[in-house]
């Protein structure tokens, strides 16, 4: 490819990504599906704007390598040790169960036993890139489904290498393959040596090198070294037939407790995002629409059967993997697709004579289409199944037995807990309602009496003793639920005194509309921010009395401004004008204070 062709291809990729991804996000399809659609559109089986798919796919796998390095940076070795059960326990069970189920179905369809084994092992692998991108996009990494998926995907990266090494033994001339015993031992020794070099180098050589480069003060050199580190490790692992992604993951883990962790992550992140996007587009380009057009029913049937079998197996295993009941199907769908290593497994199987070319092409198409199907299935899950599953798995409300306490707290997150602890310490009876079962079980260990239930339900509040209580503290974070509860309580129990958190100034004005005065609400960030501001002033040389005086005057001015702005808060133009005027008044007030202090100091010296 000459320079002109390269620039044209680069232009095509960038235009396709810039057009397809925002459109996909606009229709809530997700960025991954946007990249896949863009790749399918510009590939050799559609518009034919780009045809060198294999080279692009091979190059773009570097995006997966960078992603694994960044993930490694997030995990310190002690955290990784804590995940050993999910990696080796969950991962091995998933691989065995999925490979067995898919292999049996393939054999029932008439595939030779060697082909059935290859199909089962290859299709048991899942896409690290798609699964991790989806977990990050949906903020699921810290959930039970996310943790189990992480362990399984990492095990698959480890298992892919011996899987590929096993293929020659399955070939028809497997006896000949075993004749290379010494050569296999040499390869294994090289692999061990390279892994050892990565571990030792990451622990004892890379950190001093990073320290030297950081001292130069040249950001571009740090970025260059970050890329050199990842590329070098990837090539070393590839040279001995090991997973490049696994090698860079190990390097990332070794540097996770380094002082340069965040700088490395910041430098790698832009390259990772672009190359991952290129990888997804390359997968879309690899979809052979020729085979799909010739045998649409057969191909779609195979893809549907594959995804269904894998999802069913994973969903059945979810309980054993400690995934919460409401996430069982979500977990199954997250890693139901084929993986990047499946392309390598099937290509190697064809090379050693296990797979005919036509079978390999069909399996590659099944993997690619399953990757496209995953975002669509997750979208359908969100729209159709998630609400019903959440309702089915929802824990029944607790039976509230002690309903004579003078104080009710609705919501027991960080805000409500501080109030509750203060009241508990004074021996004041409190009834607490919250809808987070994990939070409730955790806090009950510390002796808090908390009941599970939706605090916005009037029947539950009545059972909790709202009719006899003196005070209701609304500590619910969600703005609509917060205001909705206040409205309903005001109507049902007008004499019940309400205290509430306020998210921001706009929320304050909506509370004032409901008759909540300044003595009955507290802005959740205001006092803490003001206290930190006092400490900053002291750090800049203000004495403690002066810093306290300045903070108190600022507080008083801010509260007065809120009262003054309230009649106009729905008139944005007037509100902005008044806010600017108040800011100028505040600056002038403090300027006069500074001038007055200088005059006093001069008078004292004279």
Automatic annotation (TrEMBL):
<dbReference type="InterPro" id="IPR036291">
    <property type="entry name" value="NAD(P)-bd_dom_sf"/>
</dbReference>
<dbReference type="InterPro" id="IPR003148">
    <property type="entry name" value="RCK_N"/>
</dbReference>
<feature type="transmembrane region" description="Helical">
    <location>
        <begin position="187"/>
        <end position="206"/>
    </location>
</feature>
<feature type="transmembrane region" description="Helical">
    <location>
        <begin position="361"/>
        <end position="381"/>
    </location>
</feature>
<feature type="transmembrane region" description="Helical">
    <location>
        <begin position="31"/>
        <end position="50"/>
    </location>
</feature>
<feature type="transmembrane region" description="Helical">
    <location>
        <begin position="227"/>
        <end position="254"/>
    </location>
</feature>
<dbReference type="Pfam" id="PF00999">
    <property type="entry name" value="Na_H_Exchanger"/>
</dbReference>
<feature type="transmembrane region" description="Helical">
    <location>
        <begin position="87"/>
        <end position="109"/>
    </location>
</feature>
<dbReference type="GO" id="GO:0015297">
    <property type="term" value="F:antiporter activity"/>
</dbReference>
<keyword id="KW-0472">Membrane</keyword>
<keyword id="KW-0997">Cell inner membrane</keyword>
<dbReference type="InterPro" id="IPR038770">
    <property type="entry name" value="Na+/solute_symporter_sf"/>
</dbReference>
<dbReference type="Pfam" id="PF02254">
    <property type="entry name" value="TrkA_N"/>
</dbReference>
<feature type="transmembrane region" description="Helical">
    <location>
        <begin position="274"/>
        <end position="292"/>
    </location>
</feature>
<dbReference type="InterPro" id="IPR006153">
    <property type="entry name" value="Cation/H_exchanger_TM"/>
</dbReference>
<keyword id="KW-0630">Potassium</keyword>
<protein>
    <submittedName>
        <fullName>Glutathione-regulated potassium-efflux system protein KefC</fullName>
    </submittedName>
</protein>
<dbReference type="GO" id="GO:1902600">
    <property type="term" value="P:proton transmembrane transport"/>
</dbReference>
<dbReference type="InterPro" id="IPR004771">
    <property type="entry name" value="K/H_exchanger"/>
</dbReference>
<feature type="transmembrane region" description="Helical">
    <location>
        <begin position="329"/>
        <end position="349"/>
    </location>
</feature>
<dbReference type="GO" id="GO:0006813">
    <property type="term" value="P:potassium ion transport"/>
</dbReference>
<keyword id="KW-0813">Transport</keyword>
<feature type="domain" description="RCK N-terminal">
    <location>
        <begin position="404"/>
        <end position="525"/>
    </location>
</feature>
<keyword id="KW-0050">Antiport</keyword>
<keyword id="KW-1133">Transmembrane helix</keyword>
<keyword id="KW-0633">Potassium transport</keyword>
<feature type="region of interest" description="Disordered">
    <location>
        <begin position="587"/>
        <end position="606"/>
    </location>
</feature>
<feature type="transmembrane region" description="Helical">
    <location>
        <begin position="6"/>
        <end position="24"/>
    </location>
</feature>
<dbReference type="GO" id="GO:0008324">
    <property type="term" value="F:monoatomic cation transmembrane transporter activity"/>
</dbReference>
<dbReference type="GO" id="GO:0005886">
    <property type="term" value="C:plasma membrane"/>
</dbReference>
<feature type="transmembrane region" description="Helical">
    <location>
        <begin position="299"/>
        <end position="317"/>
    </location>
</feature>
<keyword id="KW-0406">Ion transport</keyword>
<feature type="transmembrane region" description="Helical">
    <location>
        <begin position="147"/>
        <end position="167"/>
    </location>
</feature>
<comment type="similarity">
    <text>Belongs to the monovalent cation:proton antiporter 2 (CPA2) transporter (TC 2.A.37) family.</text>
</comment>
<feature type="transmembrane region" description="Helical">
    <location>
        <begin position="56"/>
        <end position="75"/>
    </location>
</feature>
<keyword id="KW-1003">Cell membrane</keyword>
<keyword id="KW-0812">Transmembrane</keyword>
<feature type="transmembrane region" description="Helical">
    <location>
        <begin position="115"/>
        <end position="135"/>
    </location>
</feature>
């Amino acid at each position: 490819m000459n320079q002109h062709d390269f620039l044209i291809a680069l232009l095509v990729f960038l235009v396709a990504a810039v057009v397809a991804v925002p459109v996909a996000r606009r229709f809530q399809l997700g960025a991954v599906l946007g990249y896949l659609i863009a790749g399918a559109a510009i590939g050799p089986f559609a518009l034919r704007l780009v045809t060198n798919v294999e080279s692009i796919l091979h190059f773009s796998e570097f995006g997966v390598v960078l992603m694994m390095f960044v993930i490694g940076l997030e995990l310190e070795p002690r955290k990784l040790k804590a995940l050993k059960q999910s990696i080796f326990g969950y991962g091995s069970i998933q691989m065995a169960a999925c490979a067995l189920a898919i292999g049996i179905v393939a054999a029932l369809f008439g595939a030779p036993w060697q082909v059935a084994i290859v199909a089962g092992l290859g299709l048991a692998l899942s896409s690290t890139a798609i699964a991790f991108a989806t977990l990050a996009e949906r903020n699921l990494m810290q959930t039970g489904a996310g943790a189990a998926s992480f362990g399984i995907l990492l095990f698959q990266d480890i298992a892919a290498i011996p899987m590929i090494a096993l293929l020659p033994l399955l070939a028809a001339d497997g006896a000949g393959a075993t004749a290379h015993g010494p050569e296999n031992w040499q390869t294994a020794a090289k692999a061990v040596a390279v892994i050892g070099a990565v571990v030792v180098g990451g622990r004892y050589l890379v950190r001093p090198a990073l320290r030297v480069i950081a001292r130069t003060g040249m950001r571009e050199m740090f970025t260059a070294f970050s890329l050199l580190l990842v590329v070098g490790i990837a090539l070393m692992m590839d040279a001995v037939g090991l997973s490049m992604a696994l090698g860079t993951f190990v390097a990332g883990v070794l540097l996770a407790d380094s002082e340069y962790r965040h700088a490395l992550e910041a430098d790698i992140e832009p390259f990772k995002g672009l190359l991952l996007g290129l990888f997804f587009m390359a997968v879309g380009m690899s979809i052979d629409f020729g085979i799909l057009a010739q045998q649409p029913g057969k191909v779609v049937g195979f893809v549907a059967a594959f995804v269904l079998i894998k999802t069913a197996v994973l969903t059945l295993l979810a309980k054993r993997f400690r995934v919460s009941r409401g996430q069982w199907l979500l977990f199954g769908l997250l890693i139901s697709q084929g993986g990047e290593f499946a392309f390598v497994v099937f290509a190697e199987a064809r090379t050693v004579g296990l797979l005919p070319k036509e079978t390999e092409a069909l399996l590659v198409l099944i993997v690619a289409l399953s990757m496209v199907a995953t975002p669509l299935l997750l979208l359908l899950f969100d729209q159709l199944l998630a609400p019903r599953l959440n309702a089915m798995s929802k824990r029944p409300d607790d039976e509230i037995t002690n309903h004579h306490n003078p104080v009710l707290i609705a919501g027991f997150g960080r805000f409500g807990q501080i109030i509750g602890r203060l009241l508990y310490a004074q021996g004041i009876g409190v009834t607490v309602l919250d809808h987070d079962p994990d939070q409730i079980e955790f806090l009950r260990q510390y002796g808090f009496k908390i009941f599970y239930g939706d605090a916005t339900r009037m029947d539950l509040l009545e059972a909790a003793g709202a009719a006899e209580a003196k005070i209701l503290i609304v500590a619910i974070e969600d703005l609509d639920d917060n205001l909705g509860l206040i409205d309903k309580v005001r109507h049902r129990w007008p004499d019940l005194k309400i205290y509430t958190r306020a998210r921001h100034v706009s929320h304050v004005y909506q509370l004032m509309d409901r008759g909540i005065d300044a003595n009955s609400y507290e802005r959740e960030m205001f006092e803490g921010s003001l206290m930190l501001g006092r400490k900053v002033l002291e750090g800049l040389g203000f004495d403690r009395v002066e810093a306290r005086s300045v903070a108190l005057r600022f507080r008083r001015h801010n509260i007065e401004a809120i009262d003054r702005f309230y009649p106009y808060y729905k008139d944005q133009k007037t509100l902005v004008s008044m806010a600017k005027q108040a800011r100028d008044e505040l600056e002038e007030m403090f300027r006069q204070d500074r001038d007055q202090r200088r005059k006093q100091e001069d008078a004292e010296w004279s």
